[in-house]
Amino acid sequence: MRYSMVLVLLASAVSACTAQPEAPDLATDTGVAVVIDTGTPIDPPWDSGPDLLADAGSTDIEVLGQDVGTMDPGEYDAGFTPPDPPDPPPEEDVCAEACLGMPCGRQCRAACRVALPGVPVEEREEYLRCIHDTSCETWRCLPDREISQACQDVCDNRSLRQCSVELNADPVVCGHECEGLLAMMSSPARQAWLQCSVNQCGIERRRVNCDPTDFLGPPPTQACINRGTTLVQCERDRDRSAWAAAWECEGWRSPNDQSGLGGNTLVNCLSDATCAPQDFYRCLLQSQERTGLADTVSEVCRRAERCEGLNVFCQMMANGLTRGVGQTGLEGIHECLRNAGDSCDDNRACIVGIWDPNVVEVHPLCRQACIACEDPTENCIHNCSRMRNSMSREQVATYDTCIRNRSAAQQCGEFLPTTCLAPALPTVADTCRRYVEHMTDRCPGTRFYNPVVLEGWCALSGVRSGLTNLESLTECVNRTGCGAVNLWETCTR
Fold it and tell me: Cα(181)–Cα(129) distance, rounded to whole angstroms?
């Protein structure tokens, strides 16, 4: 029972650490500052501490070197033989253009964006012309083609809706939708989704989540695919897909540009571990020994041992897991745990505080710098604080110098936390800038968010672990196309 509770906590940790944007609250955040002129200056009612911007120097910050490395995508073979997908759709959002202003325009765009990737290239022009004229009955425009056996098997499964697969009830339309979804997936993801929707969904009344949108995006590494494949064979994990388990595994990885962190060591050990809880614990202890933190973890997690469900969680995070925990954040966790006392709530807050905006400890420099840049928002201070936590000591020294000097000189850029990425994390900053530029150029719908803020979120994604790079991110954008899913969440993971 305790072990299963730990897994719930770990899953929460991974989802919270993944760099996902939150929609702005348009009802309350108008971006307009209300100024009340009382005629006399008012001292701030809070203690802002020492002036950390007073000793600011040059805004010309020396750039550090950075190498995040790369990891090869894994392979997955569930025995299916889906056809090779056609070339990706054109670079512009042709579905939006074809359906724009037509009756049933919204439904037309939705149907087109799912079906078009699977339509043979030579038939796409006729398909787009047809839906422009028949926007309320786009199914009439689907080309006459043979549906693969794999997609026939998917559409024959009457339990799909119970497994979060929402395909058309008509077998012909369903087949075309299935082919379009497969065309958006990487090769190992196609195998994983077919395995889930054909061989798992509904078998022994299982309601395993086979939502096809969860299978889009870059593929995980072989180590995590192996881990996911093993986990879904365990009694307690038979109601989730191997793909979901693999991506949870990838969420444990550490920033790959730093040493002394336990995430990658843990993941590599788990690649050939069994379902047995003792195997997981063996890998956990091995990762602590490899980082040289075994004694420190034992010391700082001593009080967490008596807190229900917290001990293993503490041992993982205090050894440096997830992309949000670098050398700086790890030292912060250790210091916080040493000062936490016997309170389980305080110990838990130390661990989740590395990423949770509701409890994260805001660094004073981030606070003062955001105010100096006239951006006194949680978005600014939390991005700045979380970015610092993910960095090495050398990286954070460069980042802090940039934050201090540029905010003092009012050279804040469009978004200070992102502006100061380039000198501290040059490879990541360049990758994220070019990725976001490609995504917003190709798919105008992704411009809902400020691209500069997206670059900051990207810098906490799999780019930091080496799981994704500019090539894989660009390929994901091209393969997935515009509008069928949230492209940012799909490709950035």
Answer: 21
Percent composition of the chain: helix, strand, coil (DSSP 3-state, to 5): 55, 0, 45
Q: 192 is written with which tokens?
A: 């994983």
Residues 6+ apart with CB under 8 A from 303: 337, 340, 341, 342, 347
Residues whose CB falls within 8 Å of the CB of residue 34, separated by 6 or more in sequence, listed in order = none
Instruction: Kindly state the tokens that stand for 168.
Output: 């058309």
Q: Which contacts of 84-88 are long-range, i.e. CB under 8 A and separated by 24 or more positions?
A: 85/117, 85/118, 85/182, 85/183, 86/117, 86/118, 86/119, 86/120, 86/121, 86/183, 87/121, 88/117, 88/478, 88/479, 88/481
- As to burial, measured by CB atoms within 10 angstroms (0-12 exposed, 13-18 middle, 19+ buried), residue 169 is exposed
Do 245 and 227 meet the contact criterion of CB atoms below 8 Å apart? Answer: yes
pLDDT per residue as tens, the chain (493 positions):
333 433 333 444 334 334 333 332 322 222 223 233 334 444 454 566 788 888 888 988 899 888 888 899 999 999 999 888 888 877 778 999 999 999 999 999 999 999 999 999 999 999 999 999 999 999 999 999 889 999 999 999 999 999 999 999 999 999 999 999 999 999 999 999 999 999 999 988 888 999 999 999 999 999 999 999 999 888 788 888 999 999 999 999 999 999 999 999 999 999 999 999 899 999 999 999 999 999 999 999 999 999 988 999 999 999 999 999 999 999 999 999 999 989 999 999 998 888 776 777 789 999 999 999 999 999 999 999 999 999 999 999 999 999 999 999 999 999 999 999 999 999 999 999 999 999 998 887 787 788 999 999 999 999 999 999 999 999 999 999 887 788 898 999 8
The answer to whether the beta carbons of residues 212 and 165 sit under 8 Å apart is: yes
Whether the Cβ atoms of residue 454 and residue 488 lie closer than 8 Å to each other: yes
CB 379 within 8 A of CB 29: no
H helix count then E strand count, the chain? 24, 0
pTM reported for the whole predicted model:
0.86
Residue 420: both structure tokens together: 């100061």
Residue identified by tokens 């009012």 is 410
**Cβ neighbours of 139 (radius 10 Å):** 16
Helix 393-408 with 378-389: angle, nearest 10 deg: 150
Cα 138 from Cα 343, distance rounded (Å): 60
